[in-house]
Amino acid sequence: MVKKNKKISLNTIAFNKKARYVYFIEQTLEAGLSLEGWEVKSLRDSKVQIKESYVILRSNEVFLYGAHISPLKSVSTHVNSNPIRTRKLLLNRLEINRIKEKINQKGATIVPLKLYWIRGRVKLEIGLAKGKKSYDKRQDNKLRDWQRDKQRALKQINYR
Question: Distance of CA 98 to CAs 8, 56, 80, 104, Å?
Answer without folding.
Answer: 30, 14, 35, 10
